[in-house]
Amino acid sequence: MSDKPSYGFTTTILHNDRRKPIEHYSLHKPVHTSVAFGYTDARQLASVFQGKEPGFRYGRQGNPTVSALEDKITKMEDGVATLCFATGMAAIGALAQALLRAGDHVVSSSFLFGNTNSLWNTVASQGTEVSFVDATGVANVEAALKPTTRMVFVETIANPRTQIADLARIGELCRARGILYVVDNTMTTPYLFRPKIVGAGLVVNALTKSIGGHGMALGGALTDTGVFDWSTYPNIADNFRRQPPAAQGMAQLRAKGLRDFGASLAPEAAHHIAVGAETLALRMERTCANALALAQMLEADERVAAVHYPGLPSHPQHQLASEQFRAYGSLFSFELKEGIDCFDYLNRLRVGIPASNLGDTRTLVIPVAHTIFFEMGPERRASMGIAESLIRVSVGIEDTADLLADFGNALS
After folding, report:
1. Which InterPro entries match (predicted)?
2. What is the pLDDT of residue 4?
3. How many CB atoms lie within 10 A of CB 354?
């Protein structure tokens, strides 16, 4: 089956493995557990190591099962190449490991997943300056730029308060200044949004979340969209300059982020994620519809102080989300009125499950300030708009009526 533009998102992903020969005519790329790959010609082995021809060297740097998933993610993002990692955080960590040096400067959205915030603070302690800004306005990003700025990093929809970066205008700014623009697409997924269209050079996806979709495998990915000119990036080592300009960034990321950093995705996990990815569009349609229905119900209830969801007209970036995304995502957060204990509320839920993952088929809930954002302290939480009573909801594929009843009854 050819990968023609006439095929839609799901058809392309569903049949992608068959574009290349598979052993025994299997419909799925099988799980290759070997970490070593033998060659009958030693010269060919050397040629593969030197990057003169395609092939596998060692499991830490690549594997046929992982490679098949990488190709699938590349198609999802309309990119030119993808690298998969053991987790989404490993993918973000590889950015610093492979592409940044002491004295460099990064501008990051201040509205970040807690662990990403922690990682950038670690990077800052090791000699790379990091400026956190309100990325809902491009002027804030522009004001923070310096001659040493190497990267601008944003999330599409922030976790957990759902602020939306001024994606297109930041992309225009980065393109004009020749700065690498990195967009974390985890909350939207490539089904709802492709960061390539706003000029992102690299796209992050935490495969653990909606792409894998079933909460049974960790993984992350970096996709090169082909938009950024790597020949202008000052931190590419001389040995990678021998590659064609378009391949230099991924060549260095593979060597420094996988070979040296060692955050490789296991083939078994890659297989689980690849199978889960086949139903991404179907699941996103359902979870986004469920999230909108739940958010609307909670916003209308007088016992709820605030609901943060881009699909609501009350959201500050509702219009921006409507213009950019196919739908508004499966994550929202809300605050209960004073006097209603968030723990008691969560304990009354029967369908929603207290858990810390996102993008699962099941609806998961968590008290944000007391768990995943506890480490950063009250001052930093306040700067990110995270109330002490904030509850994050990752909405699943359950029957809509059951979710509405569960969240409504728990308010009683």
Report:
1. Cys/Met-Metab_PyrdxlP-dep_enz (IPR000277), PyrdxlP-dep_Trfase (IPR015424), PyrdxlP-dep_Trfase_major (IPR015421), PyrdxlP-dep_Trfase_small (IPR015422)
2. 55
3. 14
